[in-house]
Design brief:
Layout (H helix, E strand, L loop, with lengths): L1 H21 L9 H30 L3 E5 L3 E4 L2 H7 L3 H9 L5 H6 L4 E3 L3 H16 L3 E6 L7 E5 L2 E5 L12 E12 L2 E5 L2 E5 L2 E13 L6 E11 L5 H5 L3 H4 L1 H8 L15 H23 L8 H4 E6 L6 H12 L4 H11 E4 L10 E3 H7 L1 H17 L8 E2 L2 E3 H8 L2 E4 L2 H9 L3 H6 L4 E3 L6 H7 L2 H11 L14 H4 L2 H26 L8 E6 L8 H17 L8 E6 L7 H18 L8 E6 L4 H7 L5 E4 L11 H7 L4 E3 L5 H8 L5 E2 L4 H7 L5 H8 L1 H11 L12 H9 L5 H20 L1 H13 L6 H13 L7
Parallel strand pairs: 1-4, 1-12, 4-11, 12-13, 13-17, 17-18, 19-20, 19-22, 20-21, 22-23, 23-24
Antiparallel strand pairs: 2-3, 5-6, 7-10, 8-9, 10-11, 14-16, 15-16
The protein binds ligand GL2.
The site of ligand GL2 has 18 residues, from α6.
GO molecular function: glycogen phosphorylase activity; pyridoxal phosphate binding
Pfam families: Phosphorylase (PF00343)
Organism: Celeribacter halophilus
Length: 796
């Protein structure tokens, strides 16, 4: 006891010291921003102690290091994460309160670091947390985008984008490393000189490192997230300046900075843009140089590389790291091509995150050759070597004038993994069918997971508290212990407390929505939530069509015993994805009409919350009653939102797609609302030319809902606004919204029925929590360490 009072007063001193000497403010005049910065620095100091010790230990033990290369790290806010991981919640709160400050206000002042689009980037952030919790020596490498994912707002129901500016205020978590600057070349030509191949780039951009420490649970280990920023090699031309051409004088700097300026906002969908390829090479090449420099500081035999390092390519975005490592080993370090290829192959691994054909990166070889002429030669040689061993044209990383990054990654990698059992199987059957036949042991599965620290302990403190009181706190780093909750679920008193937690979380969400958006939600209603990127394959339009049909039915019979629901949506659409933006507009228009309808508003409300990000997810997930995971089977590689909801006690309504399959296996089929076609049925159904019309003819509810889109019910001021959506669904419907509608409707009515029995529902919700322990990213990372990296924890 005495010790905790002591630490607490020490921490108060630390906070005051940073407020005074780091921020130069007196408590009397300090603003929330000043307090946040002071608190962040005080917390950071503690993290740095662990960080330094972890780095030292890695050098001493010469452990294998894991390098996670990713274009995206959707880390969100860091202060709350740091406080929770250091187990300093009470100390921080008390220290702030002693100055009359409220911790929630201070935590909410931090901008989200939105350096990612969605699941892929958030998975990378969960992995960093797990790597540090487990104590596996690891570095995340990525890009320090000045502008993260755009901010979304609505004007008359339409999505409007504005730049996200998280770096406008000082960012307290990073350490600039001006001594780590690496020149990265582009373009130019390739010469053969004195028996050696030499690439002379035409343009150089400098990559400067910024490090953020990532601390694991209980502050036992901390790894580094190293992000690269673009800088000019010669930032300023004094001659031009003196001659009066001020703009041209800084042009180099401006051009170099564009490389780390913005995150490309396409999710699962890449266009062959030159700047994107430059970004990919920029951060991959800087990372490879850095990895080799660290290796060289401890070793002098390159053959040891595969024993000492494992590189994970997060999708194909960093795939060029393979040819780059090979180039350095062969051209600069003098290894034979075969030896360089052998070493590279044993260091590289590749995670595939999507089977969508438009998302499998391909580059026009003229563009590629213009930017990276030597790499194109090397890819040809890699391809030739592979072809010699396995003469089969379709396996090539180059064909039809394109460089195919998926095939290249597969050929280069020692292990290739999918992100859920179904996705991995489909990978073997479809995109990598032939390559898998040649290398049958290369593909492995590592089903995704989420960090329980952020996605339960910190975002849902009331539930975390109840769990800890029931089974102790070891579950936080060993999530499968949640199964120990099962006996308590049989106890009505305990179940009532579980329900109280959910109700309190819903009430908090209602307060937030009322305060920020001026909309009063009915806290008694079922909170039915679909939050994720907007995409046709995720089928937000299936959800809103069913909502429309349900609304029509309620209007037909307003006095029936309807189960009140609040339908909550959130998610961003890529700027150029017009159809997805029209679906947002439609949902907002439906919300406007339905929420104003006196005949239905007590039992049905619809809301689309703007600017979905990690922080909003942290509010929504704990307050959900029902999780919507309704993608066309075979299209969602895994999903991770589905895991967060189940963990926080929201049963899923979903298709057998991605990790839903494994979630249902774990929570039990009686605790999951299944509907829809299976992946192979989807493929077959698509062969029928009139699948949509057949479905419409068979279900008058669907026909009526589509008719409401056509007749301008939701857009009387512009009656034709949604005709194209109705037409698309009637005449094309690639994602089979119509074909799955009737079964979705059936499953929704089953949900209604189940929700009416509140005790049974509470049990179902609690079983979802108790049985979701397997979906921890700690389990996933243990899988990578064992099956892919051969890496070990350095925490004793
Ligand atoms: C994604 C998949 O679409 C998603 O299903 C998966 O959960 C994540 C993480 O593995 O990866 N692939 C992809 O390109 N994005 C994803 O979110 N953007």
């Amino acid at each position: 006891m005495a010790r905790s009072v002591q630490t607490s007063s020490n921490f108060r001193d630390a906070l005051l010291r940073h407020l005074t000497y780091t921020m130069g403010k007196d408590p009397e005049h300090a603003q929330p921003f000043d307090w946040r910065m002071a608190l962040s620095h005080a917390i950071r100091d503690r993290i740095v102690d662990t960080w330094v010790a972890s780095t030292r230990k890695t050098y001493e033990q010469d452990g294998k290091r894991v390098y996670y290369l990713s274009m995206e790290f959707l880390i969100g806010r860091l202060l709350e994460d740091g406080i929770f991981n250091l187990d300093m919640v009470e100390e921080a709160k008390e220290a702030l309160e002693s100055f009359g400050m409220d911790m929630r206000t201070i935590l909410d002042d931090e901008p989200d670091a939105a350096l990612g689009n969605g699941g892929l980037g958030r998975l990378a952030a969960c992995f960093l947390d797990s790597l540090s919790t487990i104590g596996c020596p690891a570095y995340g490498y990525g890009i320090r985008y000045e502008n993260g994912l755009f901010k979304q707002s609505f004007v008359d129901g339409c999505q409007v984008e504005s730049p996200e500016t998280w770096l406008q205020e000082p960012h307290p978590w990073e350490f600039e490393r001006p001594e780590v600057r690496i020149n990265i070349g582009f373009g130019g030509d390739v010469h053969f000189e004195n028996g050696k191949t030499v690439w002379r780039p035409a343009e150089m951009i400098q990559a400067e490192a910024f490090d953020t420490p990532i601390v694991g649970w209980q502050g036992r280990w901390a790894n580094t997230l190293r992000l690269w920023a673009g800088r000019a090699v010669d930032p300023f031309d004094l001659d031009l300046f003196n001659s009066g051409d001020f703009a041209a004088a800084s042009e180099h700097e401006a051009l170099a900075r564009t490389i780390s300026r913005v995150l490309y906002p396409e999710d699962s969908n890449e266009a062959g843009k030159e700047l994107r390829l430059k970004q990919e090479y920029f951060f991959s090449a800087a990372s490879i140089r850095d990895i080799l420099r660290r290796f060289d500081s401890q070793h002098n035999d390159l053959k040891l590389l595969p024993e000492k390092i494992a590189i994970q390519l997060n999708d194909t975005h960093p795939a060029i790291a393979g040819p780059e490592l090979l180039r350095i080993l062969h051209d600069e370090r003098g290894l034979s091509f075969e030896e360089a290829l052998h070493i590279t192959h044993h260091c590289m691994n590749y995670t595939n995150h999507t089977l969508l054909p438009e998302a499998l990166e391909r580059w026009d070889e003229r563009l590629f050759g213009r930017l990276l002429p030597r790499h194109l030669d090397i890819i040809n040689r890699i391809d030739d070597a592979h072809y010699k061993a396995n003469p089969h044209r379709t396996l090539s990383a180059r064909s039809d004038g394109q460089v195919k990054m998926g095939e290249l990654s597969f050929i280069m990698a020692n292990r290739v993994n999918g992100v859920s059992a179904l996705h991995t199987d489909l990978m073997k059957q479809t995109v990598f069918k032939e390559l898998n036949a040649l290398h049958p042991d290369r593909i492995v599965n590592e089903t995704n997971g989420v960090t329980p620290r952020r996605w339960l302990h910190s975002c849902n403190p009331a539930l975390s508290g109840l769990i800890t009181e029931t089974i102790g706190e070891d579950w936080i780093a060993d999530l499968e212990q949640l199964e120990k909750l099962e006996p308590s679920i049989e106890d009505q008193g305990w179940l009532d407390r579980f329900t109280d937690v959910k109700n309190a979380n819903k009430a908090a969400l209602c307060d937030y929505v009322a305060g920020v958006h001026g909309v009063n939600l009915n806290p008694e209603a079922m909170f039915d939530i679909q939050i994720k990127r907007m995409h046709e394959y995720k089928r937000q339009h299936l959800n809103i069509l069913e909502t429309i049909a349900h609304w029509q039915e309620i209007r037909d019979n307003p006095t029936a015993d309807w189960v009140p629901r609040v339908k909550i949506f959130a998610g961003k659409a890529a700027q150029g994805y017009h159809f997805a933006k029209d679906i947002i507009h439609l949902i907002n228009d439906v919300a406007k009409l339905v929420n104003a309808d006196a005949a239905t508003r007590d039992v049905l409300q619809v809301i689309f919350l703007p600017n979905y990000n990690v922080s909003l997810a942290e509010r929504l997930v704990p307050a959900a009653d029902l999780s919507e995971q309704i993608s066309t089977a075979g299209k969602e590689a895994s999903g991770t939102g589905n895991m967060k909801f189940a963990l926080n006690g929201a049963p899923t309504i979903g298709t057998l797609d991605g990790a839903n399959v494994e979630i249902r296996d774990h929570v039990g089929k009686e605790n999951f609302f299944l509907f829809g076609m299976l992946a192979d049925e989807v493929m077959q159904r698509r062969m029928m030319h009139d699948h949509a019309q057949q479905a419409i003819n068979a279900d008058p509810r669907l026909g009526r809902a589509l008719e409401a889109l056509r007749d301008g019910t939701f857009s009387p001021e512009d009656p034709g606004r949604y005709t194209h959506i109705a037409d698309n669904l009637t005449w094309s419907d690639y994602f089979l919204v119509c074909s799955d509608f009737t079964d979705y409707w059936r499953a929704q009515r089953e949900v209604d029925k189940a929700y009416q029995d509140r005790k049974a529902w509470a049990k179902m919700a609690a079983l979802n929590t108790a049985r979701s322990g397997w979906f921890s990213s700690d389990r996933t990372i243990h899988g990578y360490m064992c099956d892919i990296w051969g890496a070990k924890s350095l925490i004793p």
